[in-house]
Structure formats: structure tokens, C-alpha cells
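Class prep. Protein, please:
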Amino acid sequence: MLTKSNNTEISVFDEKLNDLEKEMLDMPQVECPVTHHFGPGVYIREAKFPAKSFVLGHSHKQSTLNTLVKGSLIIVNDDGSHTKLTAPYTFVSKPGRKAAYIVDDVVFHNIFATEETDIDKLEEMFADKSEYSQMLEKAKLSELSLDSEIHRKDYLTVISEIGSSKDVSRLMTENNNNYEPFPHAVHPYRILTSPIEGKGYFLTVPAKEGSILAPVNNKEKRTPAARYVNHSCTPNAKLKQAEDGNTYLVAAQDIHGCMGGGKGDEVTVDYRDSTEFILLLPNNKEGELCH
């Protein structure tokens, strides 16, 4: 049986899972690291789920090829029955929402045939998020944005101290003449709207204090870590120059990846303590500074 919500047909089973989601999002969330893999014509979304957790996914718009790489889980079927799957196991799932109890630690792959590499676009292509989860995301972003006013004010102080301005800094930051994406095809991060300013660099996989998160530069080229990491008065990362001459983003404390349905923690640095982060673009006039 199908019903309609926002002109989209959804099953009664999905409606029940939408109601369940409202209850689950008020409960403590567990770490669920997500890594995005890209190859020729293929995108693999890898998720890890800890044992004794209950997982509720977003609604898939189409049938999806999946591989249970590690562990075991019990899937709740739309007729109320249950099916236990044990790795290694590959199968095709129907469109709609999925719910499962994790018996043993799981590594799970959703596999999609596509040339797209923009994760926001991929989510829009393949998944439908419930109205409730979208509402919570917007509310949380708004709340964090209010809390981040102190960081925005301090950022203005920082760029004033280096003799720049907000307009010049933004212009230089958005200059892509010396910018290039990461060379690897594995993405343990996402570029998302930041409550601090513009877009930010968010971890989708947890990191321990002292671990290397990403290179900030590749020789004279800026990476996404340099392009999108925001300033904070209470940073959770710092920059460290290595023997190869490149600068790396390093965790200054333990940083969370995806928690439940969350996006992961935003990575931030204090620009005052990160002089390597203030880069001269090769074609800037009069050596204007930018971050």
C-alpha cells in the first residue's frame, strides 16, 4: 500500500520507519564512520556500524547493489519478518527505507553506477531524506551558527592583524588558480555548509589526537583542506610542516566522524597559529594575502 507525502509516494512501511526515526533521533547516537570511494563509473559509500546498534537508513530512490563486507546483521522486512545476513554477502535491495539490527561489527557498501563525484549531488540523486530529519538539520545549523558568532568576529580581527579585509580574503580564498582536488579516490570527509562561514571541511570518519587528517598543500597547489578549513577560537586541528616540504592538517584532539545520522565534526584551526595557512597566490597583484 502506498500513501503520498509532498507529492511523493511512500509505502506504509516507510511511513512507520519515518515515525520510528523521530524517536531514534532523540536517543544517544553511535559513531558510524562513512567513507566515499570513487572509481571509473562507480561510487561506493562505505559505512561501518558497531555491534548492538540499530540502524535506520534514508530512503533509496532506486534499487541498489549492496555488499556486506564484514559482520552480520538482521534486516527488518516490509512484511514484518526478519532476515539475518552474514558477510561476505552481495545482494540487490529494493527502493525505500531500510532498518537493521547490527549483530556483529559491520562494514557495508552501497554501490552506484555513476560518474558523479559531488557527494551532495549523489545524495540528491539516490536518497530521499525525511521531512523531520531535514528540519532537524536546519535547526541544528541555525543553533550552531548563533554559537559561532564569536569565531566570525575573531576571524575579522585576525585578517585585520595581517593587513587584509574580509572582502579581499574571500576573493583570494575563492581564487582557484592554485587549487586542485585531492589526488586519491577515497574521501573520509565532506565539504558542507558551515555554521561558522561559507563551506567547511567536515570529517566523516573519526580521528585520534595527533593523527594526520589531510595535506594542506601539494607543492604549490592548495588542497580542499586549505580551501575550506575555517578559523576558530577553539580549534580542533593544527598545521604541521613535514620533511617533504608540504604542510599537513593534524588533529589537535579526538574528532568525531559521522554520529548516527549526523554529518561529522567540522575541522577548524586558529589562523594565528597557522602561518603556513596564509598563502601567497602565484598571480596575486602586490602580494595580497589570502587563506
